[in-house]
Amino acid sequence: MTAYFEGTFAARETQTNTAGQGAIELPESYALNQFGGQSTLFFQSQNVTDTNVSQYRFVAGLKGKLPFLENAGLDNWEYDGYLSYSRSSGQDSVRGVPFLPRLEQTLANTVVDADGNATCTPRSIPGEGQNVSCRPLDFFQQSFLFSGRFEDDLDTNYLFPNRLTDTVVKQNIASGYVSGDLFDIPTGGTIVMGIGGEYREDIIETRTSLAGDFLGFFDDPGSNGRRTLTEAFGEIEFPLVTDKPLVHELTLNLSGRYTDESNFGSEETYSVKGVYAPTDWLSFRGSYGTSFRAPNLGEQFGGAVVGFANPNDPCRVPGVAVPFTDFDNDPTTDETRNYNPDLDPRDPNIIANCLSGGGPFGLAATDPFSLGVRGLNGSSPVFLGAPTQVASGSNPDLDAETSDALSLGGTFIQPWIDEIDFQLAVNYFRIEVNDEVNQLTAATIVNRCYNSVGLSDPTCEFITRDARDPNIAESGEVSFVSALNQNLGRQIVRGIDINGEFGFDFSTPWSETDVDYNLIVRGTRSIQQDVEEATVDGVNINDNLGEYGSPKWRLNLTNSLRWKDFGFLFQSRYLSSAIEDNADPFDQITTGFSLCVQTLGAFDANGDFNCFQDDDLNDYWVHNTSMSYSKDSYVLRVGVNNVFDTDPPLTDNNDLGFLGGLGFDTGGRTYFVNATKRF
Predict the structure, then answer these.
(1) How far apart are CA 99 and CA 109, in angstroms?
(2) Three-state DSSP string of 272-317
(3) What is the pLDDT of residue 298?
(4) Which residues contact 416 (CB under 8 A, 6 or more apart)?
């Protein structure tokens, strides 16, 4: 019997200081508003974030042999069991962000008496369970405008209290496993089997002071929840035939697992694997298996993060449908903006849904011919922006993700020339994931709902629209959208993995010691990369193969030379070309925000397009090299990344985002030197 113990601890402290431009919206009624009207005051914002993270983990277990089973004919049986406890905690403090309830209190309750003294009446802050002394704030102080701090520290601490967040994640595990021989197969080897079980408890707790309502922060309630997981598993391997003519090895492996998750019930998964090797230098293998993933604690218990977005309400009258017209046929009067149904690009079904409302989820009706515009039918209407409150984040009603995977492949090891090492492995894979955890955007939810017949799409359940008051232009808008995580669609990936190694030694005229050369090739040829996505029109199969971030080919080549204590590496990485949406790499541009359109116009005199967006990324190679010297426990290494200073491919597609996240080097050639010491 052997007892073992492991303990680890890690701690990290970071502080981030940022500065930028802040803004305060001052109402005309604010007693200390020196501008005298509704205005925006800009100031130098300073934010300080302190983060402390600590982690520790303890493992204790016993392992050993079970010789008493030999009396039952079971040889070589062993056991291993352990208990584990881990805890991770993180504290986050943010200073310098305005707390909106206090700001609103100051702006609403500040008064100036006849002697010029400013006072502010305190009030309870709704939802925060506290009452703070209100302070009148002079936002025009020079210190505030140029440093983001008031002359009086009490004013600064009042408007910029610390936003404290403390998150603790704990995990308890009890696990055990026994394995050994069962009996011999006359034509093969010995059947071996292993069985075991595990109990796991996951807990997450978040405490936030002054949660939400900080300028620029969503109302994040944090993650709070608990789950338990009980599993039983087993594996058995049958070496059916060994060392026979044309059958060097024929092995079958079966494994299964039963999982009971406290929030999602039970699930069974299994795997079947097989190996056939006609010789010791050629083998073929295949496997098929299923898997089960219950949503994690954050996806289940993270709470709804509430913020604001613009879901592009389809009931708002589009600007193109309300042109300026000489409505009264009097050229001496100003033109007015009036609704013209002939210019409205919306589907009649959408307009009917907006007018009638109702449906299975009882949405309020609204006016799609004037919503979003104040002063329509006048000479100077105002198009209103109406930020919508959106809840996103975890959903306790999620189902588990499931998947199945198929793999077929073979391995060849060169057996004839002793001086040359060569092996090649080729593997085909197909993986399908169902009920993926993801979330629809607020825009997709609203548009899917209003594109459905009679507002019948299930997404309508997640929308709240305020009642329309014809006397209030701002009324009748979508006021809330629940865009929580959901089980959406599936994903299918197919491809071929290629792994090759080639090596030999060669002599040199200057040394009796041979040089060892090796070439390692790792490549993936993607064949299919389909994602089933929920869209405005229903479900769409999005073929991502060959698009940004999903090249058809990925290659990694490593050349290495080793002579005595010296080493040399030359590594190359390749990404094949990509075209967004697998379509023509040049899309036509008509938007007035394009510099090309502003300069040339979208069309030339012949009616042909002038302006295009380039969606094409060319093939990309990048090379790194390094040299090393090793002696005893020391290693010295120098090298160059991106040896030829290769630029990433160019594109003007705004949907691309950050090239570096797709595998491209955006920093250019860099040099490095490092030294390590082994203890």
Answers:
(1) 16
(2) EEEEEEEECCEEEEEEEEEEEECCCHHHHHCCEEEEEECCCCCCCC
(3) 67
(4) none
List b or e across 651-664, with b for residues whose CB sees 16 or more CB atoms inside 10 angstroms.
bebeebeebeebeb
106 Cβ contact partners less than 8 Å away, ≥ 6 residues apart: 120, 134, 135, 136, 137, 159
Q: In which element (H, E) is residue 482 found?
A: strand 478-484
Is there a contact between 75 and 181 (Cβ–Cβ < 8 Å)?
A: yes
Give ∠ CA 195-198-200 in degrees, rounded to 5. Answer: 170
Is-contact 216 249, C-beta < 8 A? no
Question: In terms of Cα–Cα distance, which of 610, 577, 616 is closest to 595?
Answer: 610
Q: Encode pLDDT of 212-223 as tens digits.
A: 566 655 555 566
Q: What is the mean pLDDT of the chain?
A: 86
Using the predicted structure, report yes or no on whether residue 599 has a pLDDT greater than 90.
Answer: no
The pair phi, psi for residue 446, each rounded to 5°, is -65, -45
Cα 572 from Cα 559, distance rounded (Å): 9
Residue where the block lists tokens 């899917």: 448
How far from 244 is each of 192, 238, 247, 280, 414, CA to CA, in Å? 20, 16, 5, 11, 21
pLDDT digits (tens, 9 = 90+) for 140-181: 999 998 888 999 999 998 888 888 888 899 999 999 999 999
Q: Is 266 exposed, middle or buried (0-12, 13-18, 19+ CB in 10 A)?
A: exposed
Please check whether residue 322 is in contact with residue 380, taking contact to mean a CB–CB distance below 8 angstroms: no
Name the token pair of 418: 């002793």
Q: Give the bridge partners for 176, in sequence order.
A: 81, 197
Residue 483 pairs in a beta bridge with: 392
The b-or-e profile of 608-646 (16+ CB within 10 A means b, else e) is: ebbbebebebeebebbbbbebebeeeebebebbbbeeee
Tokens of 559: 């050349």
Q: How far apart are CA 649 and CA 585, in angstroms?
A: 13
CB 156 within 8 A of CB 143: no
- Please report where in the chains the tokens 């080097």 appear, as a residue: 665
Residues in Cβ contact with 359 at an 8 Å cutoff, skipping those fewer than 6 apart: 353, 454, 455, 456, 460
Question: How far apart are the C-alpha atoms of 523 and 24, rounded to whole Å?
Answer: 54
Nearest alpha carbon to residue 234 among 285, 276, 270: 270
| Alpha-helical segments (H) within 293-399 | 297-301, 348-356
Q: How far is the C-alpha of 89 from the C-alpha of 52, rounded, in Å?
A: 8
pLDDT for res 87: 95
Residue with tokens 């406290």: 262
The per-residue pLDDT for 420 is 94
pLDDT digits (tens, 9 = 90+) for 473-509: 778 889 888 888 777 778 899 999 999 999 999 988 8
Look at the chain and count its residues: 679
Q: How many CA atoms lie within 13 A of 552 on its CB side?
A: 12
248 pLDDT band, cuts 50/70/90, is: very high
CB 325 within 8 Å of CB 338:
yes
